[in-house]
Amino acid sequence: MELETYKGGCLILELVNLSNYPTDTKDLIMNQACCLEHFLNTYHLDGIELMLCKPWQENLHRPEWIKGIHLRFWFNWFDFWRQDYTILHKEIGNADSISACYGGLTRQAWLDVYRENIVQAAATPAEYMVFHIAQVRSSEVFKYCFSATSREVVTAAVEVINEITRELPNDRLLLFENLWWPGLTLLDKDLVEYLFQNIEHKNSGIMLDTGHLMNTNLDLNTQAEAVDYVLKTVEDLGEYKTKIHGIHLHYSLSGRYVKQKKQFCTDDPTDPVQLMNHILQIDQHLPFTDSSAKKIVQMVCPDYLIHEFVQRSSVDWQQKITIQKSTMAGV
């Protein structure tokens, strides 16, 4: 509950990630608010960052627990934004498949899907919302040969953000999350500056995802090396490091796997199961066991610290939060 860090004496809300997708509500909290309440109390947590996959059920994910909302995201949205149907037909399929993916065939139809998500999120008491800025085609996920540059992706993302955030109340904090694909990687300070200079919703900042940042460096071998890499990258942001309001805390050391896949990949990028399994091998979402991870929290002193994991079962979730809470004890 509301940790006080060594550096700056700032108060941090400690959260966990959760979605209201049926398998999560069934497998993780048994469709019962009391189970979620017990979990939060057991691990001394202040609430959740919720991803809305369907309308919010107040009686299940109670208002007092919702501190943040993770907005929807699409891996490949840039081609749709450019209305490049030659690529979309290759990547997704016929017009019906494209429409099913984006909610229609026009920019306006897709923006309406995003706006609806924001309206639903704004109906909760969430203090912040998380928005991904990244782009990748399914055909690029394995080989890492990207068709778009980070500058192109961020520039287009600004256009999208300025369209959809008119539905976002001014008092809601909008946090942009870094990924390892083209977009907001946090490796280019100039791009971070461009983002914040051009978005219209000024109540905004960064959600630092530590594992995603580690995924940008395929040569990391240990948690300690990865922590140092995160610290240096944050320091290199200069004045923009103060824009980091939240941390998705976990680690990922998948460089060796990625290098092997890039060289010897035989997977089918059109197979959604193979594609998602591969992404989860890259983005491991593992709990820190090296106490050097405390340095990240101490440097950033965020408002929100989210223990973000891929929960394979309730037991798996409990094990991961236990490990990371133990590692971070005293921070």
Short note summarizing the structure:
This protein has 331 residues and is α/β, with parallel strands linked by helices. Helices cover 41% and strands 14% of the residues.
Q: In terms of topology, how is this protein built?
A:
Elements: E1 3-4, E2 11-19, H1 22-27, H2 33-42, E3 47-51, E4 66-70, H3 78-81, H4 85-91, H5 95-102, H6 107-122, E5 128-132, H7 150-164, E6 173-177, H8 189-198, E7 204-209, H9 210-214, H10 223-236, E8 244-249, H11 255-264, H12 272-282, H13 294-300, E9 304-307, H14 314-327
Parallel strand pairs: 2-3, 2-9, 3-4, 4-5, 5-6, 6-7, 7-8, 8-9
Antiparallel strand pairs: 1-2
Helix pairs in contact: 7-8, 10-13
Please explain how this structure is put together:
The chain is an alpha/beta fold and 331 residues long. It is 41% helix and 14% strand. The chain has one domain (3-74, 124-327): Divalent-metal-dependent TIM barrel enzymes (TIM Barrel, Alpha-Beta Barrel), CATH 3.20.20.150. The chain has 14 helices and 9 strands. The protein has an 8-stranded parallel beta barrel with strand order 2-3-4-5-6-7-8-9. The longest helix is centred in the middle third of the chain and has 16 residues, at 107-122. The model is unreliable at 4-8 (pLDDT under 50).
